[in-house]
Amino acid sequence: MELDGRVAVVTGGTRGVGAGIAEAFLDAGAQVVLCARRPPEHPIETPAGKAEFIPLDLRDGAAVEAFFDSVATRYGRLDCLVNNAGGTPYRPLAEGGPARHARVLELNLLAPLTASLAAHPHLRAARGSLVMVGSVSGTRPSPGTAAYGAAKAGLENLARSMAVEWAPEVRVNTLVLGMVRTELSHLHYGDERGVAAVGGTVPLGRLAEPREVGEAAVFLASDRAAYISGASLLLHGGGERPAFLSAATANWPGADESGTGRATVDKENRDEQ
Predict the structure, then answer these.
(1) Which DSSP category does 107 fall into?
(2) What is the tally of helices (H) and strands (E) in the chain?
(3) In terms of CB atoms within 10 Å, which end of the chain has fewer, N or C?
(4) Which of 38, 118, 24 lies closest to 71 in space, CA to CA?
(5) Distance between the two ends of the chain, CA-based, in angstroms?
(6) Confidence of residue 255 (pLDDT cuts 50, 70, 90)
C-alpha cells in the first residue's frame, strides 16, 4: 500500500471532501488523525482502518502547536498534512462588513498557515509532504464568495513559496478543486435538479466525488509524486465551459436554440468557395 506506516493529519476531515480524503488515506495504509471543532456525525473508517478524531480550533495558535507536537509524539512521526478545513457562506461583498469577510480569510488562509508552521518541524524530520486544498475560486471571479476566492488565491501562492523555502525536506503542493458533490451541495446548487444542471456545465458531465479528491491527495503524498513540489493539480472535470459558447450563433453545434447557427455558417463558407 502506497502510504503504509505513514501518519497523516487531515484538517476539517469530518465530512464532505475532508472525509473523502481521510478514507482514501486509510485505504492507502496511512494512520489518519482528523481535527476540527466538532466531531464527525459518524466514525470515519474503511475496512483498512479508522481515523482518530481530536477536537481543535485551528484559529488558536498555541493549541495548534500543541496538537501537532502531541500527534508526532504519540505516533512517532508525521508524514503528511492535508490543509482541507475551510469554507464560506454566500455573502455579497457589500452585504457583509469587514469583520465577517476577515473571518473567511482567517479560516481559509491564516488557519492553514498556522497549521503548516506547527507541522513543519515534524514534516521536515520525516521528509514529508504538505497538501493544500485550494479552489478554482482562487483563479477566477468568485461573486458572492469574494473573500473566499481571495483566500484561496493566497493559499496557492503560499504553497508555492513554502515549496521553495522548505525544500528539499518537505514537498508542498495544492489541489485546486472545482465543484464537488457533498452533503452540503444543496446549499450552493439547490435540489437534485439544480445539482444535475450544475454538473451538466462541467465537461465531464458531473460534479466530483469526495473520494476522487482523496485519491489525488494520496498521489501527491506518495512516493509516486517524489519530484512534484510547488505544483497545482487541477481537479475540475475539464473546467468551466466558456459562457460565450452558449450565446454564440456560429461555429458551435447547438449554440443557439434554433440549432441553425453551425449549419448557416457552413453554408456561407461553401458559397464563398
Answers:
(1) I
(2) 10, 9
(3) C
(4) 118
(5) 61
(6) low
Domains of the chain: residue spans and CATH: 7-241 (3.40.50.720), 244-273 (no CATH)
Q: How far is CA 258 from CA 47, 197, 246, 250, 268, in A?
A: 53, 21, 12, 12, 17
C-alpha cell at 178: 472545482
Where residue 197 falls (left for φ over 0; alpha for ψ -120 to 50; beta otherwise) is alpha
Per the CB < 8 A criterion, the answer to whether 11 and 32 are in contact is: no
d(CA 132, CA 102): 20
Residue 234 CB coordination number (10 Å): 16
Q: Across the chain, what does the average pLDDT equal?
A: 89
Which DSSP category does 53 fall into? E
Spell out a b/e string for 137-162, using b for 16 or more CB atoms within 10 Å of the CB, else e.
bbbeebeebbbbbbbbbbbbebbbeb
Instruction: Please state the rounded mean pLDDT for residues 178-185.
Output: 77
**3-state per-residue secondary structure call for 161-211:** HHHHHCCCCCEEEEEEECCECCCCHHHHHCCHHHHHHHHCCCCCCCCECHH
Q: Read out DSSP for 66-98?
A: HHHHHHHHHHS---EEEE---------GGGS-H
In whole angstroms, what is the distance from residue 27 CA to residue 85 CA? 21
| Res 131 pLDDT > 70 | yes
**What pLDDT is recorded for position 199?**
83
Residues 6+ apart with CB under 8 A from 248: 255, 256, 261
Rounded-to-10 torsion of CA 65, 67, 73, 76: -100
User: pLDDT digits over 8-42, tens only?
Assistant: 999 998 999 999 999 999 999 999 999 999 999 99
The bridge status of strand 45-46 relative to strand 49-50 is antiparallel
Closest by CA position to 203, among listed 170, 234, 178, 238: 238
